[in-house]
Design goal:
The protein has one domain (about 5-145): Four Helix Bundle (Hemerythrin (Met), subunit A) (Up-down Bundle). About 65% of the residues lie in helices and about 0% in strands. The protein has 5 helices and no strands.
Length: about 150
């Protein structure tokens, strides 16, 4: 039998980590929006996504996978992939909806299977945190590898 206190602490940690993405993207915004367009959309090689591509992939994953699985939102808003700031807004809106849905769940709801699999809501939410980590690491690596010059 699952220890309710341990589950509750795990849920709190997952929700805190999921919420962190909204704050992290907001902290990145002043820097990312100052990167010249050529560097934001440029690809070092055809097989390597641009910085903007990475953010767009994050938005697509949020709205195509996470939001429909964890919320009852019927339709997703349109993504304006021409503006990194709007893409960040789009990711944050999806994540806020996911966090709101998760925080409204009872402890028992967290151990219910999602997507007709054996994966529980808690497992699925934890996998989102892992995906966030991968995306954020990829962004950090691209920024580190690029010779970014910030416009004023």
């Amino acid at each position: 039998m699952t220890n309710p206190t341990a589950l509750n602490h795990g849920i709190e940690a997952i929700v805190e980590q999921l919420t962190y993405l909204v704050d992290e993207l907001e902290a990145q915004r002043p820097w990312i929006t100052r990167i010249p367009e050529v560097q934001l959309t440029g690809r070092p090689m055809d097989s390597i996504p641009s910085l903007l591509d990475i953010y767009v992939r994050m938005a697509e994953k949020e709205w195509n996978d996470y939001v429909p699985t964890l919320t009852d939102l019927a339709a997703k808003p349109m993504l304006d992939s021409g503006s990194v700031s709007k893409v960040i807004d789009f990711i944050q809106a999806g994540r806020r909806a996911v966090v709101e849905a998760l925080t409204s769940l009872s402890e028992a709801d967290w151990v219910v299977a999602v997507n007709e699999t054996d994966e529980t809501v808690a497992d699925f939410a934890f996998q989102i945190t892992q995906s966030d980590s991968t995306f954020l690491r990829t962004i950090a690596e691209r920024l580190h590898e690029s010779l970014i010059t910030f416009s004023r």
